[in-house]
Amino acid sequence: MSTDTNYEYRTGLGTDIHRLVEGRPLKLGGMTVPFEKGLLAHSDGDVALHALMDAIIGAAGLGDIGMLFPDSDPQFKNIDSKVLVLKVKEYIAEKKWEVVNADIIITAEEPKLGPYKAQMKRAIASLLGIDFLNVNVKAKTNEGLGETGTGLAISAIANVLLRRRIKRSL
Fold first, then answer.
1. pTM, 2 dp
2. Residue 11, pLDDT score
3. Among 40, 51, 75, 135, which is disulfide-ready with 125 (CB 3.0 to 4.6 Å)?
4. Which residue has the higher pLDDT, 3 or 109?
């Protein structure tokens, strides 16, 4: 009897949206973006990292970030979302999952995010422990439509691919 080592792959999709308010720093993609408003949330409100975490947890079949980090828990009040991403990475590693790649879209009318995309990619790749080329960050507008288009909110969508090694008997 011999064994052949293969991988199991799963994809996950995550979304998040938060309202822009005065008096908070704008955290996006693991960095602070210079802007006069920030995102209203129980944590730091980083919609890109929140969508990313939801995608990762969902791909692993382990629920969502609200289950792991409920907004009713005071220990998560104003927490840096980078800390939560590291916890999610540990959580999925316990189940033998690893992130292969991540693709994130951030939708905001303002500020213009183009100058910050590479820095966000570096931050996210570092958090996940994957190559910079395996992370993609896109910045879009909503062309004046909806909450994001009128400048009331910023949203994000993330897609990830996970893998884990499995052994099959032949």
1. 0.94
2. 98
3. 135
4. 109
